[in-house]
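Subgroup meeting minutes
Present: P.N., E.W., G.H.
Scribe: E.W.

1. P.N. recapped why we're keeping a running log of single-chain structure predictions: easier to compare across weeks, and new members can see raw inputs and outputs side by side.
2. G.H. added today's entry (142 aa).
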Amino acid sequence: MSEYDAVLVYDGECPYCSIAAVALRRLRSIGAVSWYDDVAQSFLEAQFDERPFAMFLVDRRRERVYAGRSAAEELADRAGTPGIVGSLVRERYDDIARAVGLASGRGRDPDDYHDVYTLVDDAAALFDGLVARASDETATVA
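Output recorded in log:
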């Protein structure tokens, strides 16, 4: 069994996103891998037949991939925030992403991926690679 049941794919060049990912790793059994990592790119290609730029929460146990607003809402729920917080995060996701993008100097907006997707077999086969990279990143940050 792997160290994580779920792995967050996030904008690793965004300092605000990186801080949130580090905090999440320390508080929950969710790993985190930068969107720019080759393993994350391979996973996205296998899952979506392209490499959309967005936040993704990959949950092997539930066989789901949460994207964009759905990922933010699911993370808020897993963090134990009140239900209203998850709803607000979901409703205001685009505004939050735009503000973080401006503050971090990111020159692009996230792609329009916001649903919950079934984890496809080819992508599921790459999950252990995401876990390994998440473990590597946690070791370098700890």
